Amino acid sequence: MLEAAERERLQIVWDLFHYGAPDCVDQAGPDFAERFTDFAMAALEVQQSVSRRSPSIVPMNEINFHAWANTEGYFPRVGPDEPGWFKRQLVRAGIMASRAIKERWPDSAIVWAEPLIHIAPHDQRRGTKEAAEVNLQGMYEAYDWIMGLAEPELGGDPSLVDVVGLNFYPHNQWYFEGPTIPMGHHEYRPLADMLVGIGERYRKPVFIAETGAEGSGRPAWLHYVCDEVRDARARGADVQGICIYPVTAYPGWDNSRHCQVGLLSTVGSDGRRHVYEPLADELKRQREILGVDGPVLNLSRLLIVR
Asked: How far apart are CA 41 and CA 44, in angstroms?
C-alpha cells in the first residue's frame, strides 16, 4: 500500500489504531501505552523508508466511541469497571505515541478523528436537560484531554493536535435515551453551527474525517454537508477537508448485510465494483463549486475520499 500510494502520488493519513489490537496485546495492561508507542514508531519507520512525505497519521481512531463501546459491552470489555478508566488508558497511549512521533519527526501532521454529535433532551424537565448536557459533554473529552485542557495529569498538550477530525453521519444527533433526531426537526442542530463551535473551542484546523449516507440518500447527504461546510467557512471556521467514508460498500457491523454506501458497490457477478453514478455526479459538482482540482487529494484540498 505504501508503494502504491507513492506511485499514484497519493497522500495517505495513516490510521494506526482503529479499535483492534493483536491478541497478545492487553489493551488494559499497564504496558499498553509503551507497546502502542513502540508499534507506532516502527510503523512510521517503515512508512518513511518508502515515502518522502512527512508522516500524516491518526494515532487512535474515535477514542470517545471506543471507550463508550467498551463500557457498554458493544465491544468486548477490557479493564476495570470504572467510569472513564478505559478512555484515560487510550488517551494516555495516544499522548505517549504522539510525543514520540513529534520528537522523531517534528514536521509530522497528527490528525485525530472523533464523533461530532448532538444530544437533545426528550422533555424540558430540569433533570432531563441536565442529563442530556452531561452526555453531550463526553464528545469533548478526548480532545480536551489530549490538548491538556482537562485532566492535565495525562500529559496532554495542544501541540499534539495538528488537525481536529470530526466524524459526522445522519444518525449523529439523537434525543437523550431516545431516537435519532431527523434532519429538519427543530431540535436538529445545523452542522455549520457545530463546526463553528468546535473551531472556536480548539482554535485548530478542522476537517470532516468521515461522512456519508446509505442507499439513495448518498448524494443528498453530500450536498447538505458541503453546503454546511461552506456556511461554516464563511463564518470563520477553518474547515480544510471533507472525507467521504467509506468509499466502498461493506458488510454491516451487526448483521453483515450489504451496506450500499460510498462511490463503489459490492462486488457484482462480473467480479467488479461499480460506480454509483448519482454520488459521483454530486461529488464532481461539489468539487467544481469548491474549486478542487487535480488528482492529488490532501488536507490542503477541500473534498477527499477515504
From this structure: 5
Q: Could you tell me the pTM of the whole model?
A: 0.92
User: Which set of grid coordinates corresponds to residue 189?
Assistant: 442542530
pLDDT one-digit tens code per residue, 238-259 = 999 999 998 999 998 888 888 9
Q: How far apart are CA 209 and CA 223, in angstroms?
A: 16
Beta-bridge partners for 303: 242
Taking alpha carbons only, the member of 291, 150, 135 closest to residue 226 is 291
How many angstroms separate the CA atoms of 171 and 169, rounded? 5
Q: Which three cell numbers stand for residue 174?
A: 439523537
β 258-259/250-251 pair status: antiparallel
What interhelical angle do 218-234 and 191-202 show, nearest 10? 50
Domains located in the chain, CATH noted: 11-189 (3.20.20.80)
